[in-house]
Amino acid sequence: HGTLTVSELADKLNKDASEIIKKLMFLGVMATKNQDLDDDSIELICAEFDVEVEKEIILEDTDLDKYISEDKPEDLVERPAVVTIMGHVDHGKTTLLDSIRHTKVTAGEAGGITQHIGAYQVENDGKKITFLDTPGHAAFTSMRSRGAQVTDVAILVVAADDGVMPQTVEAINHAKAAEVPIIVAVNKMDKEAANPNRVMQELTEYELVPEDWGGDTIFVNLSAIKGEGIDELLEMIVLVSEVEELKANPNNNAFGTVIDAQLDKGRGSVATLLVQNGTLHVGDSIVVGNTHGRVRAMVNDVGQRVTEAGPSTPVEITGLNEVPEAGDQFLVFKDEKKARQIGEARQQKKIQESRSEQTKVSLDDLFEQI
Ligand code: GDP
Ligand code: MG
């Protein structure tokens, strides 16, 4: 549970330090107020007083946010934008993601197009951009870290022959609620029935007004299937991210969010992580959601083995004791023992929670029967 001194524990238990010292004496331990207590002693003392209180301590000390060290402004450097593609079904989200990837990822890179880790990075005019390859809505609803969004820029895909549809509106609402800037990609411009003016007209109702009409929303016309307009879209993403002044400290312990994870027959737990701050290294001790371990190997988005991954970089790792969940937060600890303690406590807490959840359900069932 991390370390606590006698007086810190006394505070948490709402007791006097002398009472703790007395209990310790009975347990055969001579202690002073400022002495660090090991886990066993903390557990024993908690048991002496009240079990409920013990749970509270575990809860508090397993919160990963508490272990994130703040960055000094002078340590912050520019980082790539993390982009999510949203829009109504069949308006071309997947085709656009593929098209960007094919035009920008050179086939010569190891693994090339076949590798698929749930996110990828492209370079445009020397500026990197990270695309999340997950359904846009999921990226917004489940992927939050430290209360902040994983996504920096949302691309709203609207088919020029279909216009604004229910999921278009839903996507706008998600992005607005998250205060993420929206770039509108008017897709399927190659189609006979394409009517980009109608799309612009319809979107003004949602306060997405093009610059030509006095608004401040960027619209890009494109054909994902023909690969037309992709370069302009990438330029606009870079433009918007420059305005956002996206920054991170590459020299801190890495933290970020799980994009995707599964159990692999040969490699065990495999997780795709998006590093949001710091740099992740092979060998790092890490807590990922309710799992933990040491980063055994890392593979980048084009299938190459790498030893480190900086801010806004997606990377696939192995070495965790269990499979985490998409949307889980991760944090690297300098101290391997600390990572293990917190990882185990979080795992324990999850087991406790699912147990009490089960009890609740069966109680509810019972009442229903009565
Ligand atoms: P998603 O549901 O938003 O991911 O849409 P998809 O990318 O799966 O595309 C839906 C359909 O629209 C597919 O049949 C695509 O081939 C087609 N499509 C996507 N982009 C374009 C485009 O730019 N032009 C045309 N003509 N068809 C497109
Ligand atoms: Mg799709």
Give a verbal description of the structure.
By secondary structure, the chain is α+β, with helices and mostly antiparallel strands. 35% of the residues lie in helices and 27% in strands. It contains ten helices and 21 strands. The strands form six sheets. It has a six-stranded mixed beta sheet, with helices on both faces. It has a six-stranded antiparallel β-barrel with strand order 13-14-20-17-16-21. Helix 1 packs across helix 2 and helix 4 packs across helix 10 (336-369). It is elongated. The two termini are 42 Å apart. Bound molecules: guanosine-5'-diphosphate and magnesium ion (MG). Magnesium ion (MG) is lined by residues 93-94. Magnesium ion binds at residues 93-94. One of its GO terms (cellular component) is cytosol. Belongs to the TRAFAC class translation factor GTPase superfamily. Classic translation factor GTPase family. IF-2 subfamily. It comes from Virgibacillus pantothenticus.
